[in-house]
Amino acid sequence: MDTKLLIAFILLTGLLACSKELMETFKGFERPSNFPNPEYHFNNNEITRAKFELGRKLFYEPRFSRDNTISCGTCHIQSAGFTHHGHDVSHGIDDLLGKRNSPPIMNLAWRKDFFWDGGVFDMDLQPVVPIMNPVEMDETIPNVIRKLEEHPEYPSLFNEAFGSPGIDTERIMKAFSQFMAMVISSNSKYDKVMRNEGAKFTDEEEKGYRLFQQHCGSCHKEPLFTDESFRNNGIGIGYNNDQGRYEVTLNEKDMYTFKVPSLRNLSYTSPYMHDGRFIKLDAVLDHYAESIRDTPNLDPLLRGNLPLSPEDKLFILAFLKTLDDPGFVTDKRFAEQ
Amino acid sequence: MNKIWLLLVIIGMATACKKEESGPIDSDELASLSVEFDNIVGPQNLQLNTGSYTNAKGETFSVSILQYFISNIKVTRTNGTEYVVPQDSSYFLIRESDPNSRFAKVKVPVGDYSGLEFVLGVDSLRSTMDISDRKGVLDPAGGMEDGMYWGWNSGYIFFKMEGVSPQAPVDPSGQNKFRYHIGGFGGYSAPTINNIKTFSIDLKHGGVAKVRTDRESNIHLMVDVQKVFNGSHQVSIAENPTVMFSAYSVNIANNFEGMFHHHHTEN
What we know:
The structure holds two protein chains of two kinds. Chain A is mainly alpha-helical. Chain A has helices at residues 3-25, 49-59, 72-75, 128-132, 141-150, 154-162, 169-182, 189-194, 203-215, 246-249, 281-290, 310-321, 326-329; strands at residues 230-231, 258-259.
């Protein structure tokens, strides 16, 4: 073989390897092969590295709160599956309390609507709520824009991400969505079993999976473990008489219904339910097996307690553990840099 | 040849005559049209904070905030042809605290207009559009105090009126305030209240709007906010001091009918 050709070939291979490495550091949005197509409108907000990184920085930016103390990451902690671990309801600015449990930032690209009551139907409009809520960040977006404009880094970061100078509502929201849409949890043991990547359920997990499919799977639909519907799961009316979905539809049939939450990463996201009333998963299963309460609009699928023996509950718990994604809660791409 | 000359002269004269008369000129050329929203309370001009008024229930009140969206303007010529203002240029936030905001200024083809139509509120289509199509007055970033957007239940507040009334119960802030924030575009994924209201105003009695390139016609509307209380449903401040996203808000939205009156047109 010609020496020159060989050298050229080696150089070319080297170049390819380099570019491959670069590509591997940022891949944009990738749908996990066992997930359906996403709901988010990526055509209006194509993922780029600069926008994603800007969104991540904004997510951890306390300037979004009135006194620069609270960031999104305050109540959505990565190690807690992006929830406010240990808090039934969250405390925001001045330690004021909200009325609902902080939900996980996870697989949001597949969500049709946001919040426990589904009051927001577009991810781009979601951040407006905590920013302006007087018990969360209590800030106005015009104020935030002013603070970001005065910051030494943000003006150039926005310029870089959007191709021209300027910070406005649209750009802030689109950057936030880039981060939120990319925070994907899809590498639990369950996923690896489903994708035939070599992992196998233990006997207990397998039994738990069967029981899960029989008793839980119609609402906590695979693979996202929610069917995105709003239901009253019989936990009874909370102390604050939270009316749930009714507050945004004014439809009596929605009274006391809440969004069915995903069951991924439960080991990190205690406490459970819209008001965080259950600290342990045992209590959640005990509720379904023993103490479903008949309040208005109780879900028809939950008329009567679920027939779960103590052993069944242990199997289900074993299966639920397979939905934990330890790589997700430690993924450096999602962490404050 | 002579005949052609004659024809040209006649056409020339006809055109000249038309100009002199300033009669109906219909063309596709766009010119300014202004619609003025002049807020009043019954027989009185509205004065923020200082004016005192009485509703049909005998309750006295003052107004501290009054603002509303006007959108989707459509005009009809005296010959019946319609023109819809391009939607992107057809959203206005009328705020009593800012005198300049009382004019909704649009561009429409030159002509004589006897009909005006607009929406009080923001149509459902725009209410669900991508955030890149919500600039200016539609920016969801409006502040909490005088903002016109509900974050928690994505949608615009179409009409906001707040004020003080001795008949209003003391609120948690220690004031006797009433607060009416009326919105609801019908719901995105589930149907709910729809308080979008469309108004058709006949301009024939108050004067048609003669839209020309060399001036700006102004349609002067009186907006009687007394009707908010005294419409088909009589609203009591004492019984309903706070009306926001609720089933009751439909009663107030229905009262908007009859709130707009064409007073005159300045051509």
